[in-house]
Amino acid sequence: MIPVRLCLSALKQTCWHEYALRFVLGGAATVLTGMIGARFGASVGGLFLALPALLCASATLIDRHERLAKRRAGLKGNRRGRLAAALDAVGAGLGSIGLIAFAATFSTIVAGSSSAAFFAAVMAWALVSVAAWWLRRKLRIVRLHRRKMPAAAT
Amino acid sequence: MMYGAAALACYSFVLCQLLVRCHLSAVYASILALAVWLAVAFYPLVIGLEVGK
Question: What pTM does this model have?
Answer without folding.
Answer: 0.81
